[in-house]
Amino acid sequence: MNKWIPPVAGLAAGILAATLVFGGGGPRTEQTATSTAKNTNAEKVYVPFGEKDEYYLMASGGHSGQMFVYGVPSMRKIRTIPVFSPDSATGYGYDEHSKKMLGDFTWGDLHHPAISETKGEYDGKYLFATDVANSRAAVVNLETFTTRDIINVPNTSGPHCAAFVTENTEYMFLPTRFAVPIGSEYASLDDYSEKYRGVMSAVTFDQEKEKLNVAYQVALPPWSYDLSDAGKGMSSDWAVMTTYNTEEATTNLEINASQADRDYIVLFNWKELEKMIQDGKYDEVTGQKMIFPEKHKGGIYLVPVAKSPHGVDVTPDGTRFIASGKLAPAMTVFSFEKAFEAVKKGDFEGERNGIPVLKYESVMEREVNPENALGPLHTQFDDKGMALTTMFISSEIVKWDPNTGETLDRVAVQYSPGHAAAAEGDTASPDGKYIVALNKLAKDTYLSVGPSHPESMQLIDLAGKKMEVIQSAPVDPEPHYAQMIKADKIKTISVYDIDKKNPDAISSNEDARIERKGNEVHVYGTAMRSKFTFDAKAKRPDVIEVNQGDKVYIHLTNIDLDQDITHGFGINKYDLNMEVQPGQTNTLVFTADKAGTFPLYCTNFCSALHQEMSGYLLVKPK
Ligand code: CUK
Ligand code: CUA
């Protein structure tokens, strides 16, 4: 390091980090062409101390059940947001609010995060996600980066297709990956075609109450629905989703679900479905308003597509949708205008399961097959409307022109990208600055940690003449999808207002008290550097004493109204933990079934005397 002086003082750390990432090393007495290129790349991703990243990247945590927040271009991980799984670090899943949201589930599989939109642009307010493992939907508030609501989605198994929001976040559509009988009751697989369904749910979100709700459902055929996207502009009332296993195979899907040459894209008009509900054109099933498309026609159409499609993406101007086929080397560009025309004229080639099938030729605009590109999965867009498609098998991102089909550029990634996330990529106006490849395999990219390696995210610069990988970051499983939003759109709060209307909240140490009602004990306590106060008048204000068998409610308010001073609250051997962020009140409820002496302490390092921030839970034996 001392032999080599960086061009700008203070850049040294960034360059060093980048050098490590790019695997550089050895003596640097001479600047070679490659090392100059490396240094230029290092400058592109270097965010000097005191400055901040330009974008947030909200990345899916897959079967960790969580969401990961990164800064772009530095690719530094900033936060884990627990969503569908408990999290020891924040006490998520232990305190009452989050415990109720999680119910009995201890894991989730989060695939596609979606930022709320206004007029087709990310508005930075909320983040939605679904759980393929346990069929749930969740919403995260982006003022606090905390999960506010989780709902179980009935009649559905694995809402993989979601979440993609409509232009003004009117709906998220959650079609199911696994067909199940309605109500998930037992039905023999011999009766698959008659009894199983692929139910799609239309979910709304009430911002005021921060509540998700299933508005209605549609009983689609028993196929697997894979990915979806909402229309924009001229197609804003519509949405599209890919479906496979239209063969209705019930075993050995890898062979049996790839028999037919064509599967379908489901094209639906949600305004029309909404109207059907208003007009009472639905059945009441398992307490849900369920539209059966074979009974109530209109609003839903099928578009044939090359077999086993995966991604489908609407262009930023809303005029086209692009399907990618995991088994076909081609992407297919379809025209909304042509589709609307065909619907109007009733230009159908027949019906499947009571749903009209449009003619492929009437809706298709072109098939695009870049040379030697294999395994197209997902498409994002740049600021000029050019498509950026991930190629899983040939491990690259290909840039191409949806207007002509011409291949414009390609860049190799390491390795096997699933999705990619472009800057403001799902909006009506992508920024065209960056795209992050979400790679399924890292192989030799990082220091080895044994047979299983991390997944990998690679940042690609889109601003130059050629696309170029400029940074790489390991990521925990599994980066299924991410959205990248301009940082200045997110307005976080720095402390909570102590909620005076919340009967559990107190705002000063003097109000700390322990109230007993029969065998229920309610503790109204405070956390403040560097002590807990549970009972202001007691000889030892930081001690909670109860009888064995008591039901204990600990309501704790962090009255340290200072940014980033979060206190934790853990009780030894009681498997209990929660956190209180500045100004926040949180509640732990448990039965003191174990008699004994249990130290309790602040788990979150908060001051020089953090170690002193402790007390006791004394449980007197019966
Ligand atoms: S999916 Cu396509 S590669 Cu969106 Cu769950 Cu992973
Ligand atoms: Cu409070 Cu550590």
Automatic annotation (TrEMBL):
Nucleotide-binding keyword on record: no
PROSITE patterns on file: COX2_CUA
Residues covered by the Cytochrome oxidase subunit II copper A binding domain: 518-622
GO annotations of cellular component type: membrane; periplasmic space
Annotated keywords: Copper, Metal-binding, Oxidoreductase, Periplasm
The protein's Enzyme Commission number: 1.7.2.4
Subcellular location: Periplasm
GO molecular function: copper ion binding; cytochrome-c oxidase activity; nitrous-oxide reductase activity
Top-tier EC class: oxidoreductase
Keyword Disulfide bond listed: no
Chief place of localization: periplasm
Pfam family, one: nos_propeller
Organism domain of life: Bacteria
Alphabetical list of NCBIfam families matching this protein: nitrous_NosZ_Gp (TIGR04246)
Name of the molecule in the record: Nitrous-oxide reductase
